[in-house]
Amino acid sequence: MDELNDFFTNYLPNKLTENPGLAKDINAIYLFDLDGYGKWSVDLTEGSGSVSEGAHASPGCTVTAKAEDFAKLLENPSSGMMMFTMGKLKVDNVGLALSLQKLLS
């Protein structure tokens, strides 16, 4: 799962650093619960945002998927809606989930 590790430890933190207004624009906390990989929290409520391993106590949106399915989503972010309708990607707040496109693309 090198692509997941790279996404959470390099790509996403760099994207937030390079686009400081992105966190303010989204202003939410996401929990990614990826079966076969672990849990990662993305807090976009303070500063330019932060990414950390582990669960957050009060996420606004929890994204649940198998690690291999989430890796496929990273390869093709436009497949998110299809994966959602197929049950391969689950979210508990659809409104906030729609903002994920800004993070993934």
Structure summarized in a few sentences:
The chain is of the alpha+beta class and 105 residues long. It contains six helices and five strands.
Topology (SSEs and partners):
Blueprint: H1 2-18, H2 21-26, E1 29-35, E2 38-43, E3 50-53, E4 61-66, H3 67-75, H4 80-85, E5 89-91, H5 94-98, H6 100-104
Parallel strand pairs: 1-4
Antiparallel strand pairs: 1-2, 2-3, 4-5
Task: Give an account of the 3D structure.
- The chain has one domain: SCP2 sterol-binding domain (Nonspecific Lipid-transfer Protein, Chain A, 2-Layer Sandwich).
- 46% of the residues lie in helices and 25% in strands.
- The chain has six helices and five strands; from the N terminus they run H-H-E-E-E-E-H-H-E-H-H.
- Strands 3-2-1-4-5 form a five-stranded mixed β-sheet.
- The longest helix is centred in the N-terminal third of the chain and has 17 residues, at 2-18.
- It starts with a helix and ends with a helix.
